[in-house]
Amino acid sequence: MKKPLILALLSLLIARCSFQKETKIIVEKREREPKAEIKEEIIEEAKEEIKEEDLSSILLVNKEHGLAPSYAPGEDPIAKEALLALLSQMQNEGLNVSDRYSGFRSYEYQSELYADYVMQYGQEEADRFSARPGFSEHQTGLAFDLMHEDGTLLTNPLEASWLEEHAAEYGFIVRYPEGKEEITGYMAEPWHIRYIGEEAIQIRDSGLTLEEYINLP
């Protein structure tokens, strides 16, 4: 019984380490056009799954709700201003967080990333930590992956706890909290924050994920 568990943990650790490396590359390349050849079947499959929904005033993007390939707003200026204020405050408090981050990603760029993960780990494993093209929050221009000074994703408990407590004061929520994987569809990502605006405080205080909050009666 122990051997399968050890193998599973090793697999998850390898995937997380690679994800750290790939996300660091994203920051350096996020404004470049993708050059790698993308598997057409992955792109076509994603396009077929994208639904046109009448959502609430909060834009919900997840495994069930997608965006058109042509949707490319860039980084939202209000969200970016709030992000810079958040990063400045964290740094003023001596926390280990970099000015660098991963923000907006186009449909095409997400296609490249997702295809790379599928080739490395297979689709089932890739779906645990990477969004299919058209289903990434980064395409909204409202989501940001934060990093430590060394360029790795923000995972230290001190910084992660600060975000859980204070990100809402700047209009953000921690989008993929620990213990909510079955609801969000993704592994916990303490580094991934999503701009909501004033309602972020209500969402934080409720203890709900964005999916749960939007579906409240």
What does this protein structure show overall?
By secondary structure, the protein is α+β, with helices and mostly antiparallel strands. It folds into 2 domains: 2-56; 77-214, Muramoyl-pentapeptide Carboxypeptidase, domain 2. 46% of the residues lie in helices and 8% in strands. It has a 4-stranded antiparallel beta sheet with strand order 1-2-4-3. The radius of gyration is 17 Å and the shape is globular. The relative contact order is 0.15. Mean pLDDT is 84; it is low at 1-10, 24-39 and 49-56.
Helix-strand blueprint:
Blueprint: H1 2-29, H2 40-49, H3 77-92, E1 101-102, H4 107-121, H5 123-126, E2 143-146, H6 157-166, E3 172-176, H7 181-184, E4 189-195, H8 200-206, H9 210-214
Antiparallel strand pairs: 1-2, 2-4, 3-4
Entry keywords:
DD-CPase-like; 9 helices; 217 residues; Zn_M74/Hedgehog-like; single chain; alpha+beta; Muramoyl-pentapeptide Carboxypeptidase, domain 2
Strand content: 5-15%
Report the CATH topology name of the largest domain. Answer: Muramoyl-pentapeptide Carboxypeptidase, domain 2
SSE arrangement, N to C: HHHEHHEHEHEHH
- Rg over C-alpha atoms, rounded to the nearest angstrom: 17 Å
- Helix count equals 9
Q: Which overall shape is indicated by the principal axes computed on the Cα atoms?
A: globular
Helical fraction: 40-55%
Low-confidence stretches: 1-10, 24-39, 49-56
Supply the helix-strand structural class. alpha+beta
β-strand number: 4
Residue-averaged pLDDT: 84
Tell me the domain tally. 2
CATH class of the largest domain: Alpha Beta
Termini separation comes to 44 Å
Q: Strand arrangement, largest sheet?
A: 1-2-4-3
Largest sheet, described in full?
4 strands, antiparallel
Give me the CATH architecture of the largest domain, please.
Answer: 2-Layer Sandwich
Protein name: D-alanyl-D-alanine carboxypeptidase-like core domain-containing protein
GO molecular function: peptidase activity
Pfam families: VanY (PF02557)
GO biological process, one term: proteolysis
